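Quick log. Single chain, no ligands specified.
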Amino acid sequence: MPSSPPRRVIAVMILTPLVAALALWAFAWPAARITPRDLPLGIAGPPTATDRVAAGLEQEHRGAFELHRYDDEAAARTAVEDRTVYGAVVVTPEGTRLLTASAASPVVAQLLTQAVSAGSPGDASVPVVDVVPTPSADPRGGVLGASLLPLALAGMVTGAAVTVLGLRGTRAALALTGAAVAGGIAVTVLAHNWLGVITGAWWAEAGAIGLTVLAIGATVAGLAALIGQAGLGVGGVLMVLLGNSFSGVTSAPELLPSLVGTLGQLLPPGAGGSLLRSVAYFDGGAAGAPALTLSLWAALGLAAVLVGGRIRRAAPDADASATRDSAAQPVPVG
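-> predicted structure:
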């Protein structure tokens, strides 16, 4: 077998470290910069007492928290259950206690406990109430974070399979939708019924998982339908390299650098992780924005699949027409 031309060898030698550096940047840089940035935190109690707590938090953790004030503990607890805030400091005549939701993010729950305890007199420990705890089958909340990459890969495989098998137009759209529905049901059976690591409404969980797979798969297939095989590479960069590493599902979007956290929630993996967390543990609280994001990606991807299919069908028809016209031209004699 003939050896590769020198230019190809050089290209491989240059591209390999570039890809490795890009992957390291995408995954390691956000992890190395984890710290709270405008993290939503509630404060409940009399204004005179809460003002003192708010001033202490701002002094010790400038820019770390976005404070939401509530009249009493009941209102603060509702805000935590609705995913409006990650936790709340409740100040009462009996003392201060902290409401957290480890199901929203175990990392944030631990961070809030440390921050509030450090601000208490003598650094005394503050009683903590876990309003929405993680399931007993997943006490550290690691399974949901670990499930995001397989979902992203499932979407990638679906989009790539549709492209490689030559499915176009309506057939491709039906294949993508059917695969997403089947994937949502299969994953929910495993995660909900077998492992017990998601505990919300069964069909809502299946819908969130299926919509995530559809948004990723349709986008990948749509890119390939419009720009060819290169679309698979572009889809891989968007969904796996950037989407997975910027999702914040293992920590929280507010713990990542601001631009990274925002971008991650605008990409299907991040939106999918947020939606699944909402329906699995919070009865759909704060599910609207990620559901809308995934729906837009899915709709645009399917539209690209249909448009790309028409373009590719039109090209052979145009070539055939040109061939017929050429054959019909009279042949000059002499």
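The longest helix spans residues 288-328.
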